[in-house]
Every structure is written in C-alpha cells, then in structure tokens.
C-alpha cells in the first residue's frame, strides 16, 4: 500500500510539473520555448526519482527488519563513499562532479550565445570566423568542464596519463575514424578551407555549409536536404568551394528550346532575365551562347 501510494504521488507530481512547465506564465517567466520547457520538465522529474526511492526505503525498510539506525548507517556509507578494491566510490562526489560539469557546460553555452549575439557581431570578423571562434571556445570549455569534474571526483589528473596510454592502443584501431574526424574538424576550424555559409561541391553533392561540428559537417542542399559529411572527407578529398575567397563566380545554365523559336529573341530574353537578378554582376556582363543541336531542342 505504501509503494502504491508513492507511485500515485509520483505520477501526480510528474503531471503537475509537465502542466506547470507548459503554461504561458511559466514559459514567459523562464523565457524558453515549449521544446526547452519539455526538456526541463524531464530533468526535474529525473532529479526527483532519488527522493522517491529514499522515501520508499525509509517507509518500507522497517517491514523488512531494517532499523532507523541501520538505514542511517547505510545511507552515510553510500554518501561518504565505500571502497571497491583500491577505488573509493562516493555518490556525493559523483553527484557533485556531475553538477559541476553541467554548470560549467551551461555557462560555456550561454557565453557562446552571448558571443554570437552581442560580442562578435561588433567586430570586423566575417560570420564564418565568428562561428569558428565560438565552436573552438565550446571545445575548450568542454575539456575544462571534464577536467574540473574529474578533479571534483577526487581523481588525480596525473593518473589519467596511464589511462590515456592504455586507451591509445584501442584508439589506434577501433576509434581511428572518430579521432580522424575530430582532428579534421579542428583543422577545418583553424585553416578554414571550408566555412559556414560557403557554397561547396563534394562529389555529386553541393550546397551551403550550415554547421561544422566535432565529427561531421552539415551541408544543406538546394532542395533543403541536410547532407552529413565526415570532416575527414573534407580534408582528404577534393572539395570545390565556390565562395572561398569571395562570392563572385560564373554559373552556366543550360536551356533547351524548340527548333521553331526566334534565337535572337531567346538571347534577348535570357540576358534581360540575368541582368534583372539581384546577384548577377554587371562586369563581366551575362551572355548567351548557342551550344548545339539536340534531338528535338536547341540548346543555349
């Protein structure tokens, strides 16, 4: 009956949290979207789970012969830490380390958003350089967050050299492609042969670079599909970047028309269309060439 009552209480609290998070007043007060509010509600519900488990143990423990003193002793052991061989496991240290990691990561993410929204737009850096700086700052912040969290757990960072040496063998084989993509991503951010906003052609795919992540680069094609290209492919293979230095380049548009058309009128109309386009430059001016005869069309 106690466990059933706690499960009912748990369900009611979960529903209350979800309902409260999706009210207009809560959304305006927190300043987040509906999707972010759902994520926050999930994490709040997850953080409440250990509390329900602790209450259940306290209430049901006496029926299993556990005295209050024994439960307090076991709880103190779990919180202060217990040894497994030479390793001390402490739930308090683990929770504190996770909390430190999440807080530092949240600060890094907020700083990245502030840099993109307020600081970097005031500089003379182009948009791709701004994205490269914020992405590199995020990588550095993630490394710092991991190191601080490990130090909070009481693990000596010098001992990680031994672990890194042991993992290097596995990295050389099983994780080789992941490490290759990570290093290639850093190379893309530093050398910037491909930048956010560039029009690139990789193999038979072409589109605009939307995001350069730690493992792969997202390219949005002209039909608004996202192509995820591993960073190592952008470094090791030939990539045509149409807007690497500037946004000036030539585009050939092939048009097939019936044999009965007035070719002079066709040339006149096509040039007028090109000149009227906002992104067509006047020097050199656009021009029309007759390519050849097709089975049923004249190609310009």
Describe the structure in brief:
With 300 residues, the chain is an alpha+beta fold.
Name the average pLDDT.
80
Distance, first to last CA: 83 Å
How big is the Rg?
30 Å
Count of alpha/pi helices: 10
How does the overall form come out from the CA principal axes? elongated
CATH architecture label of the domain at 176-241: Roll
Verbal overview:
It is a single chain. By secondary structure, this protein is an alpha+beta fold. Among the domains are: 176-241, SH3 type barrels (Roll), CATH 2.30.30.60; 256-299, no CATH class. It is built from ten helices and ten strands. The chain has helices at 2-21, 24-30, 34-60, 68-80, 91-119, 127-152, 160-173, 176-191, 231-236, 263-276; strands at 82-84, 87-89, 199-202, 205-212, 216-221, 226-230, 240-241, 256-257, 292-293, 298-299. Strands 6-5-4-3-7 form a five-stranded antiparallel beta sheet. Helix 1 runs antiparallel to helix 3 (34-60). The protein is elongated. The protein starts with a helix and ends with a strand.
Topology at a glance:
Layout: H1 2-21, H2 24-30, H3 34-60, H4 68-80, E1 82-84, E2 87-89, H5 91-119, H6 127-152, H7 160-173, H8 176-191, E3 199-202, E4 205-212, E5 216-221, E6 226-230, H9 231-236, E7 240-241, E8 256-257, H10 263-276, E9 292-293, E10 298-299
Antiparallel strand pairs: 1-2, 3-4, 3-7, 4-5, 5-6, 8-10, 9-10
Helix pairs in contact: 1-3, 5-6
């Amino acid at each position: 009956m106690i466990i059933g009552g706690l499960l009912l209480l748990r369900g009611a609290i979960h529903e209350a949290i979800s309902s409260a998070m999706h009210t207009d007043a809560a959304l305006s007060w927190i300043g987040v979207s509906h999707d972010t509010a759902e994520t926050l509600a999930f994490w709040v519900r997850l953080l409440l789970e250990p509390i329900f488990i602790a209450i259940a143990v306290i209430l049901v423990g006496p029926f299993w012969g556990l005295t209050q003193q024994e439960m307090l002793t076991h709880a103190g052991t779990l919180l202060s830490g217990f040894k497994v061989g030479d390793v001390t496991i402490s739930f308090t240290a683990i929770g504190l380390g996770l909390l430190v990691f999440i807080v530092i990561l949240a600060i890094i993410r907020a700083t990245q958003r502030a840099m993109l929204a307020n600081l970097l737009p005031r500089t003379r850096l182009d948009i791709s350089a701004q994205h490269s700086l914020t992405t590199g700052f995020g990588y550095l912040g993630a490394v710092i967050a991991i190191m601080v969290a490990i130090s909070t757990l009481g693990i000596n960072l010098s001992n990680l050299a031994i672990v890194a040496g042991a993992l290097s063998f596995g990295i050389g084989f099983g994780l080789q492609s992941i490490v290759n993509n990570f290093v290639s991503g850093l190379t893309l951010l530093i050398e910037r042969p491909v930048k956010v906003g560039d029009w690139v052609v990789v193999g038979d795919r072409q589109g605009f670079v939307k995001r350069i992540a730690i493992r792969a680069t997202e390219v949005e094609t002209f039909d608004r599909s996202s192509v995820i290209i591993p960073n190592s492919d952008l470094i090791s293979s030939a990539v045509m970047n149409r807007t690497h230095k500037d946004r000036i380049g030539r585009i050939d548009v092939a048009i097939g028309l019936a044999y009965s058309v007035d070719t002079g009128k066709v040339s006149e109309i096509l040039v007028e269309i090109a000149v009227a386009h906002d992104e067509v430059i006047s020097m050199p001016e656009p021009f029309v060439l007759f390519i050849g005869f097709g089975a049923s069309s004249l190609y310009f």
